[in-house]
Each structure stands twice: as C-alpha cells, then as structure tokens.
C-alpha cells in the first residue's frame, strides 16, 4: 500500500483529518477521473492534495510566501532543509522569532532575500508562531505572535524529500493568484476543490483573515458565482464550508446541480476548530461538503454537456 505523504507545514482549517471522507465522495460521485486535472485554490497546507495521490494537479493561493515555499520545496528541497538547519534552528528564541517575522517590514523584502531564504522563513514562522496561524495586517505584514515554546520542531530531511518526491511524481504545479484564476486554467472534465475561509454566523467569532483582503459573505456569494460559471463550462466543483443557514440557502436556492453533504455532525466525527486560543474554547462545528456537477442536457435522445 502506498504510504501517505503529509504536508510539511500545518495550516489553520487544514483537511488532514477529513481528507479520507472528502476523497471518498470525490470518487463515489465520479468527480476525479484519470487524465483530469485537480485544482485546489485556497491551497493552504494542501492536506487533501497530498492525500489524493492524483496525477496532474495545480495548487493556487494568493499568499506569495506560501506559493514561494511550495515552489522551493519542488525545486530545491535540500537547500530548504539546509537553510532551516543552519540559519534558523540554532537561533530559535522569542527575540529571534520577532526578528525573522519583521523582515517583511524591510523595503523590497521579496527582492532582498533569495527564494530559499523566504521559504525557510515561512516554514520557521509556521512552526514557531501561535497555533500555526498565518495572518497578515492590512499592509500585508505578518502579525502573529510567538508560541512561547523553547524548542521548535522543524521538518526532517525525510519529510521534506517525501513531499518533494510526491510533488514531482504527481506533476503538481503551484500558481500565485486568487481563486478566480482557476477560470483561466481549468477545462471541461477537471475538478476544482474550494476550501475558503468559513462562513460564520453574525455575532460569532471566526477566523476569516488569512490574507489582508479578508473573506466575508460578499466574498462567499462571489465564490458561488464562480462555481456556477465553472459548472457551465463542464467543470466539477466541490466546496467545504460551515453548516450555516446562509451557506445552505446560497447553494440550494439555485437549480445548478449542487448536492450538500454533512460530513461532520453530533453523531459522527466531531471536528474541533484548531485555531481557538485555548483548548477549552475550541468549538465543534458542523461542516458541509458541497458537490457541484455539470448538468447534463438531452436533445433528441442524445446526452449533451
């Protein structure tokens, strides 16, 4: 049996625990076919992409540091590991953390540092920050505090190389851009999986600002419009989101062929939000998996898409 490869980084809202049930729905519904390309905007930690083992995939995210990390992992894994061991691991401390975090305040940050330096910084911050959150302010500067841990657990050479080999063997590419970029890349028969910041009910707290743009209900509606357009092009879509009245109404009021599945409820797996500040305040939430399949139209007995 082929060994599962896990992401090198952790990510708030990651799908490592739910990957098996999501993947099974993809295959049961015939969404992911041999030869098709799998797209994952809102890539984050990429747990589902790593679980699927599907050849030909594209990860998309508008976070420039995240995409730079993946491309360095793909093209220079040894350099990334060596940089972490030489320039980061020996100096771990609260003072060092903030020095590294504040590099993005420097003028021409992206030009000043090599890609491998930026990738190593990204991994170090991911492993040393509070709850593994990547969050930036309105100016695009990381503002997550230190996790107050005296030791940092950086990825091993084995895990780095395993992720690299997986990326190469499955022909995975990484593209910087927002989720709408998939409209220019996906073709009929492909599958696009969206894992956006989740909807939250009014007056509830919720983490929706991985990037400086934020993601509210206006953006949720825009995402639905993009999904509709993809379906019209013959492209399958899947969306993870919270089981709120707003999301259910958004995807059931149309006749575009969406099916909603509750993959977490009180009688099954209970999934805790892993970004609440204290363990005792981490709430269990119901999650929806929304499946959209292109509607088949028939004419004179001939099935057309």
Short description:
The protein is of the alpha/beta class and 305 residues long. It contains 11 helices and 11 strands.
Shape-level CATH architecture of the largest domain? 3-Layer(aba) Sandwich
How is the largest sheet built, in terms of strand order? 3-2-1-4-5-9-6
Shape: globular
- By CATH, the superfamily of the largest domain comes out as Vaccinia Virus protein VP39
Instruction: Supply Rg.
Output: 20 Å
Distance between the termini: 37 Å
How many domains, as an integer?
2
CATH top level class name of the largest domain: Alpha Beta
How many distinct beta strands? 11
Q: Any low-confidence stretches, pLDDT <50, length ≥5?
A: 207-211, 265-277, 279-284, 297-305
Describe the protein's architecture and organization:
The chain has 305 residues and is of the alpha/beta class. It folds into 2 domains: 19-62 and 177-198 and 222-304, Rossmann fold (3-Layer(aba) Sandwich); 78-134 and 141-157, Adenine-specific Methyltransferase, domain 2 (Orthogonal Bundle). The protein is 35% helix and 15% strand. The strands form 3 sheets. A 7-stranded mixed beta sheet has the order 3-2-1-4-5-9-6, with helices on both faces. A two-stranded antiparallel sheet has the order 7-8. Strands 10-11 form a two-stranded antiparallel ribbon. α2 links the parallel β1 (38-40) and β2 (57-61). The protein is globular and about 60 Å long. It starts with 18 loop residues before the first helix and ends with a strand.
């Amino acid at each position: 049996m082929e060994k599962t490869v896990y992401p090198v980084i952790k990510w708030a809202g990651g799908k490592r625990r739910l990957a098996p049930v999501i993947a099974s729905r993809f295959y049961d519904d015939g969404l992911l076919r041999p030869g098709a390309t799998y797209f994952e905007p809102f890539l984050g930690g990429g747990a589902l992409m790593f679980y699927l083992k599907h050849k030909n995939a594209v990860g998309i995210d508008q976070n420039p540091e995240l995409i730079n990390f993946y491309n360095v992992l793909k093209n220079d894994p040894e350099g990334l590991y060596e940089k972490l061991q030489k320039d980061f691991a020996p100096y771990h401390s609260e003072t060092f953390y903030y020095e590294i975090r504040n590099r993005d305040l420097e003028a021409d940050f992206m030009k000043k540092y090599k890609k491998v330096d930026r990738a190593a910084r990204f991994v170090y911050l991911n492993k040393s920050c509070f709850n593994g959150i990547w969050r930036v302010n309105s100016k695009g500067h990381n503002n997550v505090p230190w996790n107050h841990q005296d030791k940092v657990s950086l990825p091993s050479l084995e895990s780095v190389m395993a992720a690299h080999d997986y990326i190469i063997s499955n022909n995975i590419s990484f593209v910087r851009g927002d989720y709408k970029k998939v409209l220019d890349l996906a073709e009929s028969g492909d599958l696009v999986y969206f894992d956006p910041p989740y909807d939250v009910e009014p007056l509830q707290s919720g983490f929706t600002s991985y990037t400086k743009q934020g993601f509210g209900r206006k953006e949720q509606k825009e995402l639905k419009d993009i999904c509709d357009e993809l379906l019209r092009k013959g492209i399958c879509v899947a969306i993870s989101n919270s089981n709120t009245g707003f999301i259910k109404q958004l995807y059931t009021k149309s006749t575009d062929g969406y099916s909603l599945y509750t993959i977490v409820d009180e009688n099954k797996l209970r999934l805790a939000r892993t970004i609440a500040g204290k363990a005792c305040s981490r709430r269990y939430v119901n999650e929806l998996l929304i499946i959209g399949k292109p509607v088949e139209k028939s004419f004179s007995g001939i099935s057309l898409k």
